[in-house]
Amino acid sequence: MKQIFKKVVSVIVSSLLIAQQSLVANSIVIDKNAPIKNQPSLDKARNGVPIVNIVKPNNNGLSHNKFSNYNVEKEGLILNNSNRRDTSTNLGGYIYGNKNLANTKTAKIILNEVTSKNRSKLEGFTEVAGDRASVVIANPNGIYINGAGFINTDKATITTANPNIKNGDISSYDVNDGLIEIQKDGLNTKNVNKAELYAKTIKINAKINANNLDIITGENKILSDGTIVPKDSSNHATVSLDSSALGGIYANKIKLIGTNKGVGVNLDGEISAQDSLEISTNGKIVLNKALSSSNVKITSNDELESNTIYGSNVNINVKKSVKNRDIIASKTDININTSSLTNDNLIASGVNTKLEDTKKGSLNIDADTIKNKNLLYAKDDINLNAKTLKSSKDSQINSKKSINIKSQNIDNEESVKITAKDNLKINNKNDINSDIFNSENSNIVATNGNLDITSNSINLNNSNQIAALNDIN
After folding, report:
1. Above pLDDT 70, what percent of the chain?
2. What CA–CA distance (Å, rounded) separates 420 from 425?
3. How many domains does the chain have?
4. DSSP state string for 335-356
5. Domain assignment of residue 324, yes or no
6. Which of 74, 80, 101, 361 has the CB geometry, 3.0–4.6 Å to 349, for a possible disulfide?
7. E strands within 200-243?
8. Which among 406, 343, 334, 339 is positioned nearest to 371, based on CA atoms?
9. Where is the Filamentous haemagglutinin FhaB/tRNA nuclease CdiA-like TPS domain (predicted)?
10. Is 235 exposed, middle or buried (0-12, 13-18, 19+ CB in 10 A)?
11. Are 417 and 439 in contact (CB under 8 A)?
């Protein structure tokens, strides 16, 4: 009985070992139906880390490798770009050089393309052994990322596109479908000069750490120079870029672009850029926290809802509406252009991250309707241009220099304060009969300068204070 039991255990253990080896082996499967020139060979380092001996590059330095399965496990993956006898790697120690590169130049770009219907998993680091090269991972079926990163790579492109090769180079990427999903241990490309994520849809539920990061969503043709040519399609999701509170994007420079009409961006996680931050989409943008030590540029053909936006300079150009739920602030200037602006709390220019005054900063708002429920503030001038300016009870418009307001209809509720340290000019005189200036129990003060109010109709109710150090006109 003991001998039978030992045999059964032996068979089970052997089966498990074989299954495990098969699983590892199946992580990378070469497409045997591809042309020979696109079929790399496989090897392993002494510590078991898989090695892909990439195919010989063409005259332009492109090594185009095709796979049925392409997955990077926790131990990582080595792309052998060495034409020397042996080379040292971080993941696998010393490995032999790539025989496919004998007596030839090494690759400048390594393209790993999946030709089957299988999704890719990137759960470890990819290292280029030998000479540094850019890496492109292209799988139209989708890519799952959990703890991925790159070593010895200039640029990393992760995409659900079909790459187009023209004259020996990648001329463009055709994105028609596919999801890039980032989970758990996230994506780390801090040691890569530039990282690119191209997919129809991207979901971020973990941290992305990068140097220079471009994320482009939607159905597009993306040219090698970065030019985006959107495709006409009605098969859209409601959100093309979605980040949960667990997600976050941290990089020196960040560019987020969504091209599908009416398809939005929902970023519940933090976005933080040491350099510039750019967000552009044809749909609604929902932001929790977007921070930059440099410029912030937000563009949408739809709406913007945000909790916190801060940058050295903030430019917002949104076609329909902007709703500031908490803070929009900048070290210098803020420029907002939209149809409707609602400020629930604070819009402040010329302040630091602690909301203390800096050296300068103007606030410029151009909108059909401005609804101020709390405070509009500027270290320098405030310029408001709106058909309707409505200030809620106890709200303030405060400038350390001058305020210039041009509006057809100005409506101040009770206890509104409009204060300029220098000149305050309010002009809502026009040929439209409905030009009205209403103010109830409000303070309108030009501390050190002139106060000019021009209106077809002025209604001052109860205990208004209108004051200026110099002239009142």
Report:
1. 84
2. 9
3. 1
4. EEEEEEEEESSEEEESB-TTS-
5. no
6. 361
7. 201-204, 207-210, 212-217, 220-223, 228-230, 239-243
8. 343
9. 46-168
10. exposed
11. no
Helix (H, G, I), strand (E, B) or coil at 22: helix
Q: How far apart are the first and last CA of the chain?
A: 109
User: What does the DSSP 8-state code read for residue 54?
Assistant: P
233 located within any domain? no
The amino acid at 377 = Y
CATH code of residue 125:
2.160.20.10
For CA atoms 255, 256, 261, 265, the dihedral sign is negative
Q: pLDDT tens digits, residue range 229-272? A: 999 876 667 789 999 999 999 999 999 999 988 889 999 999 99
Measured in whole angstroms, the distance separating CA 170 from the mean position of its chain's CA atoms is 24
The pLDDT value given to residue 451: 53
> Does the pTM of the predicted model rise above 0.85?
yes
> What are the two backbone dihedrals, phi and then psi, of residue 41, each rounded to the nearest 5 degrees?
-120, 160
DSSP string, 71-123: -B-TT-EEEEE--SSEEEETTTEEEE--GGGTTSPPPSEEEEEE-SSPPEEE-
Handedness of CA 324, 330, 332, 337 (dihedral sign): negative
> Pairing state of beta strands 363-372 and 382-391?
parallel
Q: Characterize 103-112 residue by residue with b for buried, 16 or more Cβ atoms within 10 angstroms of its Cβ, and e for exposed.
A: eeebbbbbbb
- The secondary structure of residue 26, as a DSSP letter, is T
d(CA 338, CA 273): 24
User: For 61-87, what is each residue's pLDDT tens digit?
Assistant: 999 999 999 999 999 999 999 999 999
- Yes or no: say if 413 and 441 are a contact pair by the CB < 8 Å rule: no
Residues written for the chain: 473
Cα three-residue angle 344-408-413, rounded to 5 degrees: 40
Per-residue pLDDT reduced to its tens digit, 374-429: 999 999 999 999 999 999 999 999 999 999 999 888 888 888 888 888 888 887 65
Instruction: Report how many helices (DSSP H) and strands (DSSP E) the chain contains, helices first.
Output: 1, 48
Report the candidate in 277, 282, 284, 264 with the shortest Cα–Cα distance to residue 309.
277
- For residue 67, the enclosing domain spans 27-153
User: Among candidates 444, 436, 443, 440, which has minimal Cα distance to 462?
Assistant: 440
* CA–CA gap between residue 87 and residue 142 (Å, rounded): 33
Six-digit token pair at 140? 């139209």
Distance CA 297, CA 255 (A): 9
Q: Please state, in angstroms and as integers, the Cα–Cα distance from residue 329 to each residue in 59, 138, 277, 309, following that order.
A: 51, 39, 14, 6
CB atoms within 10 A of CB 181: 19
* 21: three-class secondary structure by DSSP: helix
pLDDT given at position 426: 81
